[in-house]
């Protein structure tokens, strides 16, 4: 009876955020697929999220460095996924969504770090300036580099959310006068990298669910979870002619399978970009750039701003 009450409370909280139980189950199905699991595992994913939400939720400290806040906006502006994420974790510090400011905000940060030392999940958004003792970026009179070195090593796990945090992103583009780098390169701490400009919030939720289940997250050589970044965008692109691929037709429909007008000669970087955009999509699973007619710009690859430009020329 207690379990039912907990689940009921969880769904009530989601309803208050505008997410019906039906929508929640729909996103759990998408989540299951994005993690590379059989659809038969959906019930396990549902249970994992319900259990996390009804018990002590993992504390999260979310740091912002050199970025545009687009990574936060990506999940906050995807209401259903964003609501599920916020019901699954306990956000102890996040400059964009917290009410506190100034000294009060700084106190919240340091109190949370001390209270949950060795237990919290650190989500980092943005790259870190390393030249001139990190003086190209500061918060509360401390450089990004100082903040990163004092807080991130105390986390249980660190998620570098977005290409800036993972590899330096646009702030690290040539000539990079501030010496901006991704978290791992800047301070030598291993991270789970979820690149993208912005990354898909579904991949963040999938990573959180795997962490809650104490599952080992297999990473590629760039630190990206294989469940989301094992295939190139080109591999699963609906603009390719997959006439003989029954699985593709079943997933995307015969109309898309017959489209066959690849954007590679327009400069699409899909063949050299690893991400699950064609299957996870954006805006609550509505679409992704190539489906909307725009070539992939390779935003989840290290150094994409320098290596992938010009974006409208065949490489």
Descriptive account of the structure:
By secondary structure, the chain is of the alpha/beta class. The protein has two domains: 57-228, NADH:ubiquinone oxidoreductase-like, 20kDa subunit (Rossmann fold), CATH 3.40.50; 231-315, Cytochrome-c3 Hydrogenase, Chain A, domain 2 (Irregular), CATH 4.10.480.10. The protein has helices spanning 2-16, 21-34, 42-54, 70-76, 79-88, 102-115, 144-151, 163-167, 183-187, 201-212, 226-229, 246-252, 254-257, 277-280, 304-307, and strands spanning 59-64, 90-94, 121-125, 128-129, 138-139, 142-143, 157-161, 180-181, 192-194. Strands 2-1-3-7-9 form a five-stranded parallel β-sheet, with helices on both faces. A two-stranded antiparallel ribbon has the order 4-8. A two-stranded antiparallel ribbon has the order 5-6. Helix 2 (21-34) packs across helix 3 (42-54) and helix 2 (21-34) packs across helix 10 (201-212). The longest helix is centred in the N-terminal third of the chain and has 15 residues, at 2-16. The radius of gyration is 20 Å and the shape is globular.
